[in-house]
């Protein structure tokens, strides 16, 4: 009801602003990295596996895609991420030493549950879930679990469930790295420190809301938008595009920026806003040349940079700067700005933000 909304107009907005707190809650009590964060017996499981298979749908699938970048780079374990409804029906090659990870806000998504059962029927017994509902079917069905503490999420478009999943998946990355001999005590301490700082860092992104509102007025008049990211920010571009289409009904697509010239560049005109996620990482110079390709066709760039990105506003280039560069955890900050952009664009278009047409919060039938 209205009382629960407090100062917010929609649950989605409230849930976006709850993220500093629920990320803190999700990491509460984590004083060190250890497999047992995921349940008794996790050490033995992590010791036996030599690959990871992530199964999920929707927004949860995108947190899985982000985790692939983390796990392969930090823990050095190969990862496959599959859309549950595809995996359950395709002929795949099973491998018994696989850690099967399902990701689900509700823990009741029919395709994800069926994909888990399918994996098990193929002889893969090491199962772990990242889930927001402790009493759900998914948690009952998996041997290991990490329960995110996003709290009840009402808005159909997932926000706080996604960022808490990412926090849990980063813990999984570090735990796998540790068992795999890839995490020194010093690195562990640095990562824990960065994680503890997340609530403050996210609050600083939320404070950019007025600048994002100014952009959303342009977006509300568009029918198409392109989102670009590279590396671990490519899944964040996908999630940003999903948020925008779900609630504002603006057609949005996301591409890894290096793929621009293989198709989407044909769509770029003066009418096309191109949202670019531009943290100051190893790919920034490559990304800048992708941005020039867009500008050369008249495309309007809306760039989420960070303090050190060295990208300046100018003709057709709008820049919002995130207050800090956050290394491996940067996807968790960048997605918050995209959630706000989608929310305010939808608000400006007058859509039913919390209950977008044709969509359900939880898809419990196929
Ligand atoms: C629906 C929701 C999405 C969600 C997806 C997967 O499509 O609208 O927000 O990401 O289901 O749900 P799950 O509960 O498994 O994360």
Automatic annotation (TrEMBL):
Q: Where is the SIS domain?
A: 42-182, 215-356
Kindly state which reaction or reactions the protein catalyses. D-fructose 6-phosphate + L-glutamine = D-glucosamine 6-phosphate + L-glutamate
GO terms of molecular function: carbohydrate derivative binding; glutamine-fructose-6-phosphate transaminase (isomerizing) activity
Origin superkingdom: Bacteria
| GO BP annotations listed | amino sugar biosynthetic process; carbohydrate metabolic process; fructose 6-phosphate metabolic process; protein N-linked glycosylation; UDP-N-acetylglucosamine metabolic process
Key words of the record: Aminotransferase, Cytoplasm, Glutamine amidotransferase, Repeat, Transferase
EC assignment: the record states 2.6.1.16
Signal peptide per UniProt: none
The entry's function note states: Catalyzes the first step in hexosamine metabolism, converting fructose-6P into glucosamine-6P using glutamine as a nitrogen source.
Task: List the protein's name.
Answer: Glutamine--fructose-6-phosphate aminotransferase [isomerizing]
Q: Which organism is it from?
A: Rugamonas aquatica
């Amino acid at each position: 009801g209205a009382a629960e909304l407090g100062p917010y107009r929609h649950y989605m907005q409230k849930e976006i602003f709850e993220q500093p707190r629920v990320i803190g809650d999700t990491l509460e009590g984590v004083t060190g990295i250890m497999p047992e964060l995921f349940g008794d017996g996790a050490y033995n499981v992590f010791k036996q596996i030599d690959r990871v298979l992530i199964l999920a749908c929707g927004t949860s699938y995108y947190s899985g895609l982000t985790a692939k970048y983390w796990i392969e780079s930090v823990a050095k374990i190969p990862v496959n991420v599959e859309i549950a409804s595809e995996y359950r029906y395709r002929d795949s090659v099973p491998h018994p030493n696989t850690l099967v990870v399902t990701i689900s806000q509700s823990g009741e998504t029919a395709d994800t549950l069926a994909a888990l059962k399918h994996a098990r029927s193929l002889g893969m017994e090491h199962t772990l879930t990242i889930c927001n509902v402790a009493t759900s079917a998914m948690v009952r069905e998996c041997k290991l679990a990490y329960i995110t503490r996003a709290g009840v999420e009402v808005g159909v478009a997932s926000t706080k469930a996604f960022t808490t999943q990412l926090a849990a998946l980063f813990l999984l990355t570090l735990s796998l790295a540790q068992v795999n001999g890839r995490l020194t005590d010093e690195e562990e301490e640095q990562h824990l420190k960065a994680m503890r700082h997340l609530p403050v860092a996210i609050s600083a992104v939320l404070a950019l809301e007025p600048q994002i509102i100014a952009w959303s007025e342009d977006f509300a008049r568009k029918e198409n938008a392109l989102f670009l990211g590279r590396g671990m920010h490519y899944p964040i571009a996908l999630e940003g595009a999903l948020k925008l289409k779900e609630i504002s009904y603006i057609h949005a697509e996301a591409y890894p920026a290096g793929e621009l010239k293989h198709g989407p560049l044909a769509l770029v005109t003066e009418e096309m806003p191109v949202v670019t996620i531009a943290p100051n990482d190893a790919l920034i110079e490559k990304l800048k040349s992708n941005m020039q390709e867009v500008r050369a066709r008249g495309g309007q760039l809306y760039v989420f940079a960070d303090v050190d990105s060295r990208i300046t506003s100018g003709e057709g280039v709008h820049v919002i700067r995130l207050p800090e560069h956050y290394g491996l955890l940067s996807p968790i900050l960048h997605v918050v700005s995209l959630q706000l952009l989608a929310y305010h664009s939808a608000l400006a278009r007058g859509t039913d933000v919390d209950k977008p047409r044709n969509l359900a919060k939880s898809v419990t039938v196929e």
